[in-house]
Amino acid sequence: SKKLLVDVDCGVDDAQAIMLALAAPNVELLGITCVHGNITVENVCKNTLRVLQACNKLEIPVFKGAAKPILGNSLNAGHFHGQDGLGDAPDPNAPGLDLVQKEGAVSAMIRIVNENPGEVSLVATAPLTNLALAVRMDPSLPSKLRGLYIMGGNTESRGNTTVCGEFNFAADPEAAYIVLNDYLCPTYLACWEFTCYSKLSWEFCDAWLAQDTDKARFMAQIFQHSIEVSQSKRFQKEFVAGTGFISCDSYAMAAAVDDSFITESDHYPVSVELTGTHTRGMMIVDTVGFLKNARKAFIMKKVDMEKFKQMMMAALK
Ligand code: BDR
Ligand code: CA
């Protein structure tokens, strides 16, 4: 079976990605590490536990990580994910934070990878603070990973958070820089524009949520707020041509779960802009060969959308 370790800032699409992984055959989720991002790290832990409860998987360990980026203050995406990060549809029976492991996320990441050298695929669907701290504590960590799958960055300087910054990179540019430069392992990126071009239709979403299961009812509740924001004229106009839902984080997860999911990718040196009037946090793709020392990553271009829809359907079964 495939061993996954997942780093999240559990908003709505992180929840969808986690559920996709939990439903995938032959996948073992070794743990979920939490980090600031869509909402505070405490809320991220709460939301992650709620998702695990909805899937009857509370035995999967949840670890609390960094509360802030390496420099500066946290961002927040409550306008999209809801003020609690999960659609503002509270559950009175939600599990308490006492279920979070005592061990911190960065230590857990290092320990779990070292216990399973060469076997763990690390999936990051959040600001990369935990990953950056982990590689500073254990520089050998990337060489022991099977692969790294990231939702983040952008390829056409189209931002969703700053004029040309994607949320996960813009929320901690230094961490994104460290991870892209220092994780010497096969690295796959689901960048913002790619996810925009790979939207799920609203017809699909309706059929997805109409499944007669507790998981589908849970998803319908936490998803409603983001559906409304995504369907608003302003969102459509600002970010994406064409209508539909962008489950950003699920693309990185699907790639980690199934090796044949990515059907076409670019392989270019990548880096992150750390200064600039408008460009801090923007991903740089070197298509020409100027960045002699930068590391190459696989940038997703085409994926098997039929497979994606099947994995998403299975997530709520
Ligand atoms: C990313 O930002 C977050 O709001 C989403 O969960 C996703 O990880 C998209 O830019
Ligand atoms: Ca996320």
From TrEMBL:
<feature type="domain" description="Inosine/uridine-preferring nucleoside hydrolase">
    <location>
        <begin position="5"/>
        <end position="310"/>
    </location>
</feature>
<protein>
    <submittedName>
        <fullName>Si:dkey-4e7.3</fullName>
    </submittedName>
</protein>
<dbReference type="GO" id="GO:0016799">
    <property type="term" value="F:hydrolase activity, hydrolyzing N-glycosyl compounds"/>
</dbReference>
<comment type="similarity">
    <text>Belongs to the IUNH family.</text>
</comment>
